[in-house]
Amino acid sequence: MTDTYARTTTDAWRNWAGNVTARPARTVSPASVDELAEALRRASEDGLKVKPVGTGHSFTATAATDGLLIRPDLLTGIREIDRTAMTVTVEAGTPLKRLNTALAREGLSLTNMGDIMDQTVAGATSTGTHGTGRDSASISAQIRALELVTADGTVLTCSATENPDVFAVARIGLGALGVITAITFAVEPVFLLTAREEPMAFDRVTADFDQLVAENEHFEFYWFPHTGNCNTKRNNRSAGPAAPPGKVSGWIEDEFLSNGIFQAACSLGRAVPATIPSIAKLSSRALSARTYTDIPYKVFTSPRRVRFVEMEYALPREAAVEALREVRAMVERSPLRISFPVEVRTAPADDIALSTASGRDSAYIAVHLYRGTPYQAYFTAVERIMTAHDGRPHWGKVNTRDAAYLAGVYPRFGEFAAVRDRLDPDRLFTNDYLRRVLGD
Prior knowledge:
Elements: E1 7-9, E2 13-14, E3 21-22, E4 26-29, H1 33-45, E5 50-52, E6 68-70, E7 78-82, E8 87-91, H2 96-105, E9 108-109, H3 121-126, E10 143-149, E11 155-159, H4 164-170, E12 179-186, E13 188-189, E14 192-201, H5 202-207, H6 209-215, E15 218-223, E16 229-238, H7 247-271, H8 276-286, E17 290-294, H9 296-300, E18 308-316, H10 320-333, E19 342-347, E20 362-370, H11 376-388, E21 392-393, H12 403-409, H13 413-423, H14 432-438
Parallel strand pairs: 4-6, 5-6
Antiparallel strand pairs: 1-4, 2-3, 7-8, 8-12, 9-13, 10-11, 10-12, 14-16, 14-17, 15-16, 15-19, 18-20, 18-21, 19-20
Helix pairs in contact: 7-8, 10-11
């Protein structure tokens, strides 16, 4: 057996979108929980703040630090599968893709997931990553236990029965409570999903939104700005048989059109913004209706190779259609040229203190712009609409909200703050972003 050991570097760090950079004093990849605890002790002695980082898929500076950056590269793999409890315990640095494929080999699956799977399990859950679902909620809501190393080096296990006050807030902890080293997820026997994708007019999908959500286990749609066109996706459990997309047709839809051609269109739009409305009309008609059936992660997730910057807000579900119509009206009367579609998803209420769906059925409206395109004017205008509807910003996506605003839209904000005060009174795990959104 080859011994593993912590690796330490001083390399600069940049997130996936390239809009956040940091130059930590030290970067360490601990190979064990003990090595992580020692790294935290040394950082505290040296007066360095500490931030854990995943794969950098957040668009905010959640993980940025000029102190010690903790990379979980060596904390990967499945610790245990418990078929009696129907759980899997996985090391924090394990990419979701690796977890999904490993579970599938074991005949198991998560119940719901987001639309990409490049993130680590700790990074995805700490920022509240979610997919869409009528009854099934975010990845964090599927957590049954957490292992957390706190500021003083204590290894804390929490669940609904063990340290339940920590469990209530740590499933979406923003890296503010400690460093997650392992997560136990609920799993179920692998199942099949049938995906039905089809174009639909904006006026129809907004008029029938409540019905479409009610009739489908997982419903989402994309509206193409400067057009009246949407693309819808309905995922529902199926008795089978499996009927995945054909290799050629799947490549044309998921790679050639959704990544290759779209990349070229975005590049042209960034260089010549006046072409964007025409490109949008073509793009909105390029993807055809299709139906396919496969195991969950192959239906929920898609390759995302075109890089972008994103802002997303969770609204009370009943406010979603009105807010989206306001976004459309704002775009139509403005000089803005928007090359990326607007994504709409849903989630049921959950019981996590800082979940964007905490205590209320929610709908998500996400806006994107191609990387390198000035986004401030568009995002500011959209954010004004979202906050007028008591919107909660996704913790890992661009926003300008502060602790005063967030305390007003999260009834359990004070509960999170109290646990943070107890676990990290000296703010070892803070940074500028957390000072803004959580306060100090």
